[in-house]
Structure formats: C-alpha cells, structure tokens
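Exercise 7.
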Amino acid sequence: MPNSYFQFKQFRVEQGECAMKVCTDACVLGAVADVAEARRILDVGTGTGLLALMAAQRNPLARVEAVEVDEAAAAQAAANFRASPWAARLALHAQSLAQFAATGPAPFDHILCNPPFFRHSLRSPDSGRTTARHTAPDTLPFAELARFAADYLTPEGRLTVLLPPPEMQHFERAAALLGLSPASRLIVRHRPGSKPLRHITAFTRRTGSAQAAELALYEATGDTYSAQFRELLGPFYLAL
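Solution. The predicted structure, written as tokens, is:
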C-alpha cells in the first residue's frame, strides 16, 4: 500500500486522499521543466500539488497556481501548499480547467501538465484514479489543454507536458492545430537502450526542430539510479 506521504528535502507531499500518488516520471517533469525565468506558472491537474511545489522550490520569484477538479485531491493539494515553505506564492483553484478559463486569468509564462493519458485502456473501478489516468470529455481532453495553453500563455511562454510516446503524438497534433510546436523533448527510459517510457515535451509558439535529449532512470545493470537521474533529482530526493 502506498505511503500516506512522500517526504522531499524541502517539503512533504501528503497523498492519502489522492487517487494518483507521487511517481518518478512526474518528479522528472518537475525537475526538468524550464521554469527559471517564469514569473507566473500554472500546474494543470495538480493532484497532490507535486509539480507546483517543485516549481516553487526551483524558482523563488514565481507565483505558482494550480487547478484541480477532483475535490479530495484539491483539498489535499491546498493543505500541502499551506504546509510548504512557499505558501505565500502558491494558490489552488478547485475547479475544472474550463471553469478556470472562464475567470479570465492573466497569462502564464509556463504551464505544466501531467495529463490523463490512458485513452483506450481498461478503466479502473476507482473513479478517482480513472479521472486522473484517462482522457474523457468530462476530464481533460488533449484539445482542451492545448486550447487553454494557446489562449493563456504569454507570447514567449511554454507548455511542458508528460505523456507516453503514442499519446504524445496525439497531443502534438492537437497542439499544432493551435499554433504550438515542440521546442524540446526529453525521452525517458528505464535503462539505456530500453523502450521509451515517457516523453516530456515543451511547446512554444516558435516553429523549428525540437531539441532532443534522453534520460535513463537506472544504470544498465542493477537497481542503481543513473548519474544523470541522481543529479537531476538530487535537490529533491532524500536518498540522493
């Protein structure tokens, strides 16, 4: 059974009320997204609040907001924000992305999202987990996320998304229709040379070839984290 919390070096994520717990790929997203120059950051579908908290740690000048439609997850994320060292710079909106858009928020320099992605797989009997893991008209369709980013990113803003490779292809097509193109792509693998697990892709309004990089979570043999992973997550994981 997953722990009721995940302790990082500078903050704790309580997760007992959230369908989706802290996971490695989301931590990688939070560590690699280019938030250094952003002053307004939005985490869409924040869940536990993980990505918003990581962004707040990495950028001491940014105002970080988060949207979460699930009531239990929103309450837990809000509590995690209040308990963090950056409570004054964090804000939680307990509503759908469409409802948040209707409030007419100011543009964001960076939008982060680890969206629902199991488009055709067997749905979980846990309704909260289903909402967090599957795309559906009443959760967060890719086109809705892309549209929001196109409408609410600053001219030089970025949208960084984490998806499995096949789902990222679907998202890239939805984003292209709205003028958003891949600027960089991190291919995440379990080990060097293994099948890609996730793509972390940053989208902007600029066109051109996306810069590609790779990350192996573990060394080629054994259960040792790779040197690249250790360097990336060192500021966050207690064990590194």
